[in-house]
Design brief:
Length: about 80
């Protein structure tokens, strides 16, 4: 039983520590969430640019780049 608990803890630690970086593609995506325009990913136009975080439906065009990331809703790509 103790061995199983140790393996579970090791798995959780590995999952939380998982980070990698490589060139990958983000497909086009339309969604709504709070964002700012100084993060390099939200460059869409506004009639009057809001200051600070704001939320509305917006579209991300396809993007190919490299940066450290963890598996999440935006990084569910396949690895060859």
């Amino acid at each position: 039983m103790l061995g199983g608990a140790a393996l579970m803890v090791a798995g959780i630690v590995l999952h939380l520590a998982e980070r990698h970086a490589h060139r990958h593609v983000h497909n086009s995506l339309e969604h709504e969430h709070a964002h700012t325009h100084d993060d390099g990913h939200h460059s869409h136009a506004h009639a009057l640019l809001p200051s600070g975080p704001h939320s509305h439906l917006h579209r991300h065009e396809p993007l190919r780049h490299s940066h450290p990331h963890v598996p999440d809703e935006h990084h569910a790509h396949r690895h060859a």
